Amino acid sequence: MVTADRPLELAVTSGEPAGVGPELTIQALAQLDTQNELTDVRCHVLGDADLLAQRAGAVGLQAEWADMLAGGRVVMTHHALAVPAAPGHLDARNGPYVLALLDDAIDGALHGRYDALVTAPLQKSTINDAGVPFTGHTEYLAQRTGVAKVVMMLAGGGLRVALATTHLPLARVPAALERGDLLATLRIIDADLGRYFSKRRPRILVTGLNPHAGEHGYLGREEIDVIAPALADARAEGIDAMGPYPADTLFQPHYLADADCVLAMYHDQGLPVLKYASFGRGVNITLGLPIIRTSVDHGTALDLAGSGRADCGSLIEALRTANQMARTARRIEPAA
């Protein structure tokens, strides 16, 4: 629990060791430190200490990294790699290491050691190749925290876009849309935008699934049979959810001017628009968890690892967003 008499404690998992996560972590923290944004925040970096030191040298921030550690603004929480990691070269033997970072951060957040969790990108294939079934951060966080339902929301470029379904093949999306599940999604968005973003009774605009939102049933009935009834259920509970709107016309300024969030039906319906508006500065936020979690809007960029050419802007925004969400929750939650 955040209290006024101590700094915020943010856990930062450094992600896939062969990717850009370790160096982006160092670069993002160094920029925030230069801008005096770590004065009342303590960042706990979870990863292999030697790897982080090596990447700090590779990107020319060895002195800055050492200074942040010595000053206590950054705390290194060491987890040893299974085998040395070379930039750009995946090794399945380090898959359990990546999960150990995440597990440590989740447990720390659940037990109050960390006020929020920020994750650098990981490589799903490395974890699966290590023999651990893994579909993504979002699903793993839900499983580890014992939550039946979470919502992926990306923010950036003046937009917030949440998803009704996440990492599903497109052919499975229609069957995955259920009235009760959509209502549960809307409840989570409504509650967490209030809790973490001070949006009391947020206005949520909801897309249809089919072209032209089904064209009154001629292009599909999901809007009539599933989406519209779920929206009626939500409005009956006091949730300001409107739609379903055609996705090809919804993302226009005059529609979005009064919106706090758009709920899209599937991954590639809503996220291309948001990433076009904000790529490199977007933030992935998991709603519905008992902890705060933010992440970057990109992957491991193996081709850039160790080069210093990767852009740390998204991780900077993820850190800032986690910081702000924790502070908002502190203002809203009653004192213990």
Account of the protein in words:
The radius of gyration is 20 Å and the shape is globular. Helices cover 43% and strands 17% of the residues. The longest helix is centred in the C-terminal third of the chain and has 20 residues, at 313-332. It folds into two domains: 1-143 and 294-336, Isopropylmalate Dehydrogenase; 148-288, Isopropylmalate Dehydrogenase. The N and C termini lie close together (9 Å). Strands 3-2-1-4-11-10-5-6-9-7-8 form an eleven-stranded mixed β-sheet, with helices on both faces. It has 336 residues and is of the alpha/beta class. The protein has helices at residues 21-34, 49-58, 62-71, 95-110, 124-129, 137-145, 173-176, 179-197, 222-236, 247-250, 253-256, 267-278, 313-332; strands at residues 8-13, 41-47, 74-78, 116-119, 151-156, 159-163, 203-207, 240-245, 261-264, 283-287, 293-295. A hairpin with a 2-residue loop joins strand 5 and strand 6.
Give a topology summary.
Blueprint: E1 8-13, H1 21-34, E2 41-47, H2 49-58, H3 62-71, E3 74-78, H4 95-110, E4 116-119, H5 124-129, H6 137-145, E5 151-156, E6 159-163, H7 173-176, H8 179-197, E7 203-207, H9 222-236, E8 240-245, H10 247-250, H11 253-256, E9 261-264, H12 267-278, E10 283-287, E11 293-295, H13 313-332
Parallel strand pairs: 1-2, 1-4, 2-3, 4-11, 6-9, 7-8, 7-9
Antiparallel strand pairs: 5-6, 5-10, 10-11
Subcellular location: Cytoplasm
Protein name: 4-hydroxythreonine-4-phosphate dehydrogenase
Family: Belongs to the PdxA family.
